Amino acid sequence: MPEGIVRERAKHQQLQPPGWPAPKGYANGVKARGEFVFVGGMVGWDANEKFAAGFVAQARQALENIVAVLAEGGGKPEHIVRLTWYVLDMDEYLAARRELGKAYKAVLGDNFPAMALVQVGRLFEPEARLEIEATAVIP
Q: Global pTM?
């Protein structure tokens, strides 16, 4: 993205300060106006609380769970303005980045909100490899 460009998507603006390198797969900031939807930490299990096998499969399921909760509030993936990822193993995440990118795009498309990635020592559900929180703003 060129310097100082503010990209609009679904009435949200991605904020990119002049001279900063373009982020890959996330936004440095997002400006939004509308109704907020806060999605609690989603893990990689289905509606029957059965975990998907493997890190990427759990990530995809967690993202699908976010989309399902968001839909209950009238939202869509493009309304997501922030994601916070909690992972047990940063190396596992880094090794799976290419496959994660494919899963991410399959579920959320080309919406790249502000994001944080945090390695944690433990998650509440013992089988979970990651947990993802989301904030959305519906215009």
A: 0.86
